[in-house]
Structures are given as structure tokens and as C-alpha cells.
TrEMBL record:
<dbReference type="Pfam" id="PF00307">
    <property type="entry name" value="CH"/>
</dbReference>
<dbReference type="InterPro" id="IPR050606">
    <property type="entry name" value="Calponin-like"/>
</dbReference>
<dbReference type="InterPro" id="IPR036872">
    <property type="entry name" value="CH_dom_sf"/>
</dbReference>
<dbReference type="GO" id="GO:0007015">
    <property type="term" value="P:actin filament organization"/>
</dbReference>
<dbReference type="InterPro" id="IPR001715">
    <property type="entry name" value="CH_dom"/>
</dbReference>
<feature type="domain" description="Calponin-homology (CH)">
    <location>
        <begin position="25"/>
        <end position="134"/>
    </location>
</feature>
<protein>
    <recommendedName>
        <fullName>Transgelin</fullName>
    </recommendedName>
</protein>
<dbReference type="InterPro" id="IPR000557">
    <property type="entry name" value="Calponin_repeat"/>
</dbReference>
<dbReference type="InterPro" id="IPR003096">
    <property type="entry name" value="SM22_calponin"/>
</dbReference>
<dbReference type="Pfam" id="PF00402">
    <property type="entry name" value="Calponin"/>
</dbReference>
<comment type="similarity">
    <text>Belongs to the calponin family.</text>
</comment>
<dbReference type="GO" id="GO:0015629">
    <property type="term" value="C:actin cytoskeleton"/>
</dbReference>
<dbReference type="GO" id="GO:0051015">
    <property type="term" value="F:actin filament binding"/>
</dbReference>
Length: 188
């Protein structure tokens, strides 16, 4: 856990402060209230980092959440507080979230939650899962998902687009970027 590690210093501490500055207590509280609405837990829905971490760190509530959205997604939820078992719960949640349609770029790594490295990415993942929950008949949070806007063009419209001459877009009148030097020259 994060409490067993040495405190970060130098660049690492600066990077961690930057990551922590992106954390939004309002969004975290919205996530916890949404989880409470679906699972009837947790009792404390404060959005501060300490509470958010304490509520979610063992992964059992996250597994219960995805099983309430779609029953049977996580086959075995480990109730043990051993580090390995808790990380298994978090991994099972992440796999279930991907199956429910959360894009890979909106998920987090296990250490982001377990070692409290990046709680903002956990919030992003829960917000994304909250949008997907509406597809399964559950309450949703966050902005509404965009719908596909498929366009079908006729052959006549496609041919008309091929008749456009590129000079109709405009011209740079023969200008190039040769000779442009921004600042000092390269020394070898």
C-alpha cells in the first residue's frame, strides 16, 4: 500500500502533485453517490481523496458495482484484505468495465488505485462506466453518450466532390518554409 513507501521527493513529488491537482472532489462525490444508488453502499460519499481511496481500495465495492450493472460479470469477489487478493478484485473490475464498453484509454492501472498513484484516472473510469450503465437499464452519470451520425452519399454527390480543383481552396502564392530559422542555429 502507499503507506509502506518512502515519500516522494524532487521530480517525482512534483509530478505527483501535478497528478493530484487534476483530482476533482465534485466528480468523485458524484461517482460515490452513483455507486451508492446502484449498490446501496457506501455510507460515506464524501469526495475527498482520503475517503474516496478508503471506500474503493480493496476493489470489493467495484466488483459489486459491475455485478449490479450486469450480473455475473465478476465470478469471484475476494473478501480477503490481503494485497494480492485486493489487486485481483481491482483487475476483475477493470476487465468487467472493458466488457461493459469502457474504452481502454479511460481505464486505470491497478496501482493507480491500490497504491494511490492516480485517483483522478479512477474517477475518469467510473464516469465512463457511469455513461455506459444507461445502456443496461441502470442510472447513469456524466454527459450523455454521442450517437452515431451515419451519412450516406449518392454516387452523384461523390462524383461532384471529385470535380473540385485543389486551387479553389486557396494558394500560398509559392511560399515555402525554407530559410526560416526560429532562434539559434544547430551546432554540431
Amino acid at each position: 500500500m502507499a503507506t509502506n513507501r518512502a515519500a516522494k521527493s524532487g521530480f517525482a513529488a512534483e509530478a505527483q502533485r501535478k497528478i493530484n491537482s487534476k483530482y476533482s472532489e465534485e466528480l468523485a462525490q458524484e461517482c460515490l453517490l452513483w455507486i451508492q444508488q446502484i449498490t446501496n453502499a457506501p455510507e460515506n460519499t464524501s469526495g475527498d481523496m482520503d475517503n474516496f481511496y478508503d471506500v474503493l481500495k480493496d476493489g470489493t465495492l467495484l466488483c459489486k458495482l459491475v455485478n449490479n450493472i450486469q450480473p455475473g460479470l465478476v465470478k469471484k469477489v475476494n473478501e480477503s484484505k490481503m494485497a494480492f487478493k485486493c489487486m485481483e478484485n481491482i483487475n476483475a473490475f477493470l476487465e468487467a468495465a472493458r466488457q461493459l464498453g469502457v474504452p481502454a484509454q479511460e481505464t486505470f492501472q491497478t496501482v493507480d488505485l491500490w497504491e494511490r498513484q492516480n485517483l483522478n484516472s479512477v474517477v475518469i473510469c467510473l464516469q465512463s462506466l457511469g455513461r455506459k450503465a444507461g445502456n443496461f437499464g441502470k442510472p447513469s452519470i456524466g454527459p450523455k453518450e454521442a450517437e452515431k451520425n451515419i451519412r450516406n452519399f449518392t454516387e452523384e454527390q461523390l462524383r461532384a466532390g471529385q470535380g473540385v480543383i485543389s486551387l479553389q481552396y486557396g494558394s500560398n502564392k509559392g511560399a515555402t518554409q525554407s530559410g526560416i530559422n526560429f532562434g539559434n542555429t544547430r551546432h554540431m
